[in-house]
Amino acid sequence: MLPESWRGVLGEELEKPYFKELTEFVEEERARGPVYPPREEVFAALDATPYDQVKVLILGQDPYHGEGQGHGLCFSVRPGVRTPPSLRNIYKEMHEELGHPVPDNGYLMPWARQGVL
User: How far apart are CA 91 and CA 35, in angstroms?
Assistant: First the structure.
């Protein structure tokens, strides 16, 4: 379910034909096999980062590479799961460009709670 803070921003978009078609496609894919993240975590990033608190948006491709990685925050993996290649690249760029230390894990929920979507 779409979090309240995002309904005014995205609510109408979810009613458009293309989004309904996309939703049907994803449900058909779920019937065939695993789709990540699990259904109950689809809007986890929006739950963790209310619309009015977004400060940074990270865009990229290939956020997940394997089973057990996707949990609703792109590029993020739960504690104990190996950091995926795309996130390692993000960390590398942050280190090279901004001097930030490279985290020893790929769990981005603390970032989400600080406004990183």
Answer: 26
This prediction's pTM: 0.82
Retrieve residue 12's tokens.
């109408």
- 11 alpha-carbon distance from chain centroid: 19
Q: Which of 47, 52, 62, 104 is catalytic?
A: 62
Q: How do residues 27-81 score in pLDDT, each as one tens digit?
A: 999 999 988 888 899 889 999 999 999 999 988 777 777 788 889 898 999 999 9
**CA separation for the pair 80, 69 (Å, rounded):** 10
Q: Which residues contact 80 (CB under 8 A, 6 or more apart)?
A: none
User: Is 62 part of the annotated catalytic residue set?
Assistant: yes
Query: Amino acid letter at 90?
Result: I
Its sign, for the CA torsion 54, 49, 57, 79, is positive
CA nearest neighbour of 115 among 71, 74, 58, 56: 56
Amino acid in the structure at residue 47:
D
